[in-house]
Amino acid sequence: MKVNQSEFIISAVRPEQYPEDGLPEIALAGRSNVGKSSLINRLINRKNLARTSSTPGKTQQLNYYKINQDLYFVDFPGYGYAKVSKEQRFAWGKMMEKYLLERKELKLVMQMVDMRHEPSKDDMMMNEWLRHHGLPLVVVATKMDKIPKTRRAKHIKVIKEALDLRPGDLFVPFSSEEGLGKEELWEIITRHAGIGQAVAEEEPDAENQEDHEING
Known about the structure:
Belongs to the TRAFAC class TrmE-Era-EngA-EngB-Septin-like GTPase superfamily. EngB GTPase family. Its cofactor is Mg(2+). Keywords: Cell cycle, Cell division, GTP-binding, Magnesium, Metal-binding, Nucleotide-binding, Septation. Necessary for normal cell division and for the maintenance of normal septation. The chain contains 5 helices and 9 strands. By secondary structure, the chain is of the alpha/beta class. Strand 4 and strand 5 form a beta hairpin.
């Protein structure tokens, strides 16, 4: 898939605000600062469509990004940020649960975990919840470039064991800095979205498109 258009569409907090064009949607879920923004930018070969933020927990809505006229990336609020009130975390949780269980356009959830660390309790609870409800899922281990090559296999093993991943479960180690895992992840995304083989490229004028700040 040649990416020649990528744009921010809306920050939605209610179902009536979601796009109504029926395009497949790919949700991105993970802890605050796990690298969701950087992953989006690497997948579409853009520097600043999704800007990383120095303030964890800044993303408070479902942020929609349209890729060509083919699909949406839907960026979720980061979970596990302690300074967010219990009331706000509850509200986010209800919003995300309603979306995940009722949104018919949802074709895949990318659960992102930090490869440098063992999955947190929040990571494990989210993974268990997604699998319990039978949602299509790929676990993406981010920041692989931060781990020495000789230790990556050990870190991958720790993550897979903590999340009780089995043979056949989708798992992609990923580096936004180096682009490692990009082609494999695009293949999974487009297969679930039903839009064919993916090779992400960007047109030269893409840097002029509107940027939008979100938290990764």
